[in-house]
Design brief:
Blueprint lengths: L1 E5 L2 E5 L15 H13 L15 E4 L5 H5 L6 E4 L2 H14 L7 E4 L8 E7 L4 H11 L3 E12 L5 H10 L3 E3 L6 E6 L14 E4 L11 E4 L11 H7 L10 E5 L5 H9 L4 E6 L2 H14 L5 E6 L11 E6 L4 E2 L2 E2 L2 H13 E12 L4 H9 L3 E5 L3 E7 L2
Parallel strand pairs: 3-4, 3-6, 4-5, 6-7, 12-13, 12-15, 13-14, 15-18
Antiparallel strand pairs: 1-2, 7-9, 8-9, 10-11, 16-17, 18-20, 19-20
Helix pairs in contact: 4-5, 7-8, 9-10
Length: about 400
């Protein structure tokens, strides 16, 4: 837990799920800079006063709910692609004494508000996601809308500013402060409103087993949305197929190509696709629908790893865990996924993990499962297998 001090109070914030070993903060200098700017430029800046403004406030890309927790008195709309962000937001609102219902939680796939009077944007890592969201929100922006973006200096590029300029209107940036920068955009109602081009589809190569030549669908922001990444390709070449009926989990499913491959290889299997990204699960659903046989059984879950899966109910978990939390390197997600997999697996059930060789997942898996073997490896990746005893 860490304390975030703003002009409207100090808030004890955490990420979700809470992990005492995780030292990463639930806010950063860009969040602080953005709120400081609002306090300095709005008429009501008394230290004890809750920030408020007429109309609808939308916060896009709030990382862990830091912004909407501070701005809860406005009853803002939070738009995020992250289930974990939504859960962190609710927890942080409760911890601050605010009504969790004060913030309307929207995913990036939900219908945006019809009118936006204040738009705050935490610049995402994915330029495609930023473009998709700005195009979706643009019809609700009017000449009087105030638009302020924020990000660390390393997150804001010329391409970022061009998107604001092309989609919403004239754009400029602030001076840097504590390695953070603000974006100021003046709406131009005369700009043409072009719909988002996402989701998009592409055909898989002809040499990736049962999914060769199949079509994959990706919503904006999905990792490697325009091509098959080399790690997933390597896993597809070594899938544990031919097991017949059983429950398989594609954990951190992304666009669902791995789980779909399992459904094609073992038509009697029941595949559960899980990701904390709303866009990823929507992509996986579309990929599965386009390729799996009509009799194939599947479930699609937006959630926190395997926390919603009954213990001892799974035969096989396939996992390519992320090792970044936004811009920071962290093994917190991998720890959560591996621990959840052990709990969800039946005795004799298996966890298959693919990762970069340097991450050393074998050490944690041996500690957790008591065993771990290498299924396949190349100079960059390794596929590991751990069995629930």
């Amino acid at each position: 837990m860490n304390r975030f001090t703003t002009s409207w109070g100090a808030f004890d914030l955490t990420r979700f799920p809470e992990d005492p070993r995780d030292t990463l903060r639930a806010w950063d200098a860009a969040d602080a800079y953005l709120l400081q700017h609002l306090a300095e430029t709005e008429a009501d800046t008394e230290p004890e006063a809750a920030p408020r403004s007429p109309g609808t406030t939308v916060v896009l890309g709030d990382r862990w709910g830091a912004l909407v927790t501070a701005l809860a008195a406005r009853r803002p709309v939070q738009i995020t692609d992250s289930y974990l962000t939504q859960r962190a937001t609710v927890a942080n609102l409760r911890r601050s004494g605010a009504d969790p219902e004060a913030v309307r939680l929207h995913s990036v796939l939900d219908t945006p508000p019809e009118r936006i009077d204040l738009l705050l944007v935490r610049v995402p890592k994915s330029l495609a996601l930023l473009e998709d969201q700005l195009r979706r929100l643009a019809p609700a922006v009017h000449a009087g809308t105030r638009i302020v973006g924020a990000g660390m200096v390393t997150e804001i590029h010329t391409s970022t500013l061009k998107l604001f300029e092309q989609i919403l209107g004239p754009t400029r940036t602030s001076l840097a402060a504590k390695k953070a920068r603000l974006i100021f955009c003046t709406p131009d109602p005369g700009l043409p409103r072009t719909s988002s081009s996402w989701p998009r589809s592409y055909p898989l190569p002809a040499d990736v087993g049962v999914v060769s030549g199949r079509t994959v669908t990706n919503h904006a922001g999905i990792f490697c949305a325009d091509r098959l990444d080399i790690g997933t390709r390597f896993l597809l070449e070594h899938l544990p197929a031919g097991r017949g009926a059983g429950r398989v989990v594609d954990l951190g499913c992304g666009n669902g190509v791995v789980g779909t491959a399992m459904a094609l290889a073992d038509p009697e299997a029941e595949v559960t696709f899980i990701d904390e990204s709303f866009s990823a699960v929507a992509s996986a659903r579309a990929t599965f629908a386009a390729n799996a046989p009509a009799t194939a059984k599947a479930e699609f879950v937006v959630g926190d790893a395997l926390s919603q899966v009954p213990a001892g109910s799974v035969d096989l978990v396939l996992n390519n865990p992320p090792f970044h939390s936004h811009r920071a390197t962290s093994d917190a997600t991998a720890r959560s996924m591996f621990g959840g997999a052990r709990a969800a697996l039946r005795p004799g059930g298996e966890l298959w993990v693919i990762g970069n060789r340097h991450l050393g997942y074998h050490v944690r898996l041996r500690r957790l499962f008591g065993n771990c073997e290498v299924v396949a490896s190349d100079p960059k990746f390794v596929i590991l297998r751990a069995v629930r005893r």
